[in-house]
Each structure stands twice: as C-alpha cells, then as structure tokens.
Design goal:
Layout (H helix, E strand, L loop, with lengths): L6 H13 L2 H8 L3 H15 L4 E4 L2 E4 L1 H29 L3 E8 L4 H7 L1 H4 L4 E8 L1 H9 L5 E4 L11 E15 L11 H7 L1 E5 L4 H12 L5 E6 L2 H9 L5 E4 L3 H8 L2 E18 L6 H7 L59
Parallel strand pairs: 3-4, 3-5, 7-8
Antiparallel strand pairs: 1-2, 5-10, 6-9, 6-10
Length: 349
C-alpha cells in the first residue's frame, strides 16, 4: 500500500495544532522551529492543501486543517492505546466463547447454565440472542461455538449436531405481592381469578402450558404474551399479572423481582440443552459445558458403635424370652426361693 503522506509529518502537524503555534510545538518536540515548519510544509504539499493560516501572532487551522486534525486525533489516540492492548493480548491467551441463546431460555437460567465456564480466568464471553433456526445457521458457519436452547436440535437438520441436556426444572407460578390471594386459596382458583402473562405462542413452554390448562378445564385470562422471558418477569413484577417461571431460579426471582410464589405448575417441566457441532475435537470450554457433572462422592461410613456392656443378671432379673415365645416372669421377691437340690450320695463299692 502506497501512502500519500508521511505519518511523521502528520504527527508534527498534530502537535502544532494542539500547541497552537510552531514555537511551542518545537519546544515540546525538542526540535528547531525551522525543522517543524518544514515538516508541516511537506505534509501540506503531500495533501495538496494548506492546513494552517496566520492568525494574529499565532496560527489557525484552515477548513482542510480542521478535517486533518480530526483524523489525526483518531489515529494518535489509537496509537497511544496500542502498547496497552498489545501487552494485554500478549500477556495471556484469551479463550473466546461465542454463545447463542435461544430467546425462550430465561436470562437467569443462562447465567446458571454457564457456571462451569465462568470461573475461567482467560474467558472472553460473547452472547447473542435470537430464534433457534438463525442460531443453528450461525453454528453451522462457525460463528458460534455453542447454542443454549429450551429444546433439542431438530432431527431433520442436515447438520451433525449434538444436543446435550444440561438442566431440567419444574415450572411454578409467581405474582407481585399485591396480586397474591389470602393464604390457603387453591392454586387453580387463584389462577382463574388473576390476569396471566404467558410466553409467546412459538415458545416450547407455551405449548405445555396450554395443555396443562386444558387438562384442568381452566380458561386463563391472558393479558400479555412475551417472547422475551426478562420482559415477562418485568411486567409480572410490576403487577400486570401472574406468570410462570422455572423453579430452578426461585431464590433469584424472589430476591431480584420481589415477587411471591403462588404454587408449583405440577407436571410442566422446562428442559435446557447445549447444542454443538458433533466433532472429535471440541472447543475446550464447550467440552466443559458438555461434560457430565462430577460424581457425588459418598460420605465415609460412620465407625461402628462400641458394643453395649453385657448386663449381669440379678436374682430378680427376668431371663430373656425365647424366640417367638413369651418371656419367663421374674420370681416374686416376696416368696422364698426354692432350696437348691441336695446332692445324691454314692454307695460305697
């Protein structure tokens, strides 16, 4: 690439424009005034326009000089940041992870699902949200390393995809405190009396919820439908209606949104998957996501208890019962004990 100007000349012009005159610029650069003036003149000849004009005892920028100064500002600001960026990049190799998130997966759940990789000190995470077909297309083009979704990859796709189940969570119903009924009200009665916020019709959870309503003969009063789960929770926390959410993040929901749990949505579960290209060598962080959870090591058995001391039978103690029989009653202390049998005499031979 052939440049129409010299960057060193541009730097001298930039210093002159910042300092407001040749003399001050020369003093800052540690050069003679004539040398600085000659370098700026070379730049003007290269660009074909005058950049400076006399203004009283100093210099002012022409229109062309204003344009040149704006570009020079951007160029030298980037140049000043260059050493730090190079040192940061050369200090340790970053592990970049491009994650696609299906818009049906709640944001709080995404954070939980990515826990196995968030502790990586070299991580550079990039998350992008979209619908599942668009994310799978980017996965095929290697623009994404993994996709988090609320359903497995479709079986009819020509791609060799691996759908790995990460978590399963039951659903529960939540509402702002102002909408919560008195304690002890049955859940179905509560849902029949409240406005409801539901996932959009295209979401996998919505289909299971519709079947749940039909099985219980409940006709919900739906006042809002949301493809984005964060919007669903925000409107629900604002009191617009009761809403379903995964019990997996129950504590976070109560702490962040200030809502209350109305009860479990029995029989409706949400399943979350990591979808990746089925390949022999996986991205190391994707392999960490797909790895099975560590086995729970059972606690060591407790040491055997010391044997109980053997009780010494007393005269009044009852003898042990025979297996399957009744215990022999203890002798009455008020009765005289039977005398011991007298020894038999042996006849002399």
């Amino acid at each position: 690439m052939t440049l129409a100007f010299n960057y060193k000349h541009l730097y001298y012009f930039w210093v002159v424009a910042k300092e407001g005159g040749m003399a001050r610029a020369a003093a800052r650069l540690g050069m003679a005034v004539q040398t600085v003036s000659g370098q700026v003149a070379e730049l003007e000849r290269s660009l074909g326009h005058s950049l400076l004009k006399p203004a009283g005892r100093g210099l002012a920028l022409t229109e062309a000089g204003q344009a040149a100064l704006q570009q020079a500002e951007a160029i030298f600001q980037l140049g000043q940041a260059l050493p730090a960026r190079v040192q940061e990049a050369g200090g340790q190799a970053l592990l970049r992870l491009q994650v696609g998130v299906n818009d049906g997966v709640p944001k709080l759940v995404v954070h939980r699902l990515l826990q196995p990789v968030l502790a990586e000190p070299r991580l550079r995470l990039r998350c992008r949200e979209s619908d599942l077909p668009a994310l799978l297309a980017d996965l095929a083009l290697h623009r994404l390393d993994v996709v988090l979704a609320d359903r497995p990859a479709p079986a009819d796709t020509p791609l060799r995809l691996l759908s790995h189940g990460l978590e399963t969570s039951p659903l529960a119903w939540y509402a702002a405190p102002a909408l919560c009924p008195t304690e002890g009200t049955p859940l179905l009665q509560t849902l029949a009396s409240l406005p409801l916020l539901l996932p959009g019709p295209q979401q996998a959870t919505r289909q299971r919820l519709d079947a749940w309503f039909d099985a219980r003969g409940l006709r919900p009063r739906v006042v809002g439908e949301f493809d984005d789960s964060a919007l669903l929770k925000a409107f629900g926390a604002g009191g617009m209606g009761a809403f379903p959410a995964p019990a997996l993040v129950h504590a976070e929901l109560l702490a962040r949104y200030g809502v209350r749990c109305l009860g479990p949505c029995q029989g409706v579960d949400e399943h979350y998957y990591a979808i990746a290209i089925d390949r022999r060598v996986q991205h190391p962080l994707v392999a960490r996501l797909l790895a099975p959870p560590p086995a729970v090591v059972p606690a060591p058995p407790a040491p055997p208890a010391a044997p109980a001391p053997i009780a010494t039978p007393t005269d009044n103690a009852a003898p042990p019962a025979e297996p399957g029989g009744a215990a022999t009653p203890a002798p009455d202390a008020t009765q005289a004990p039977h005398p011991p049998p007298r020894p038999r005499r042996r006849r002399p031979p």
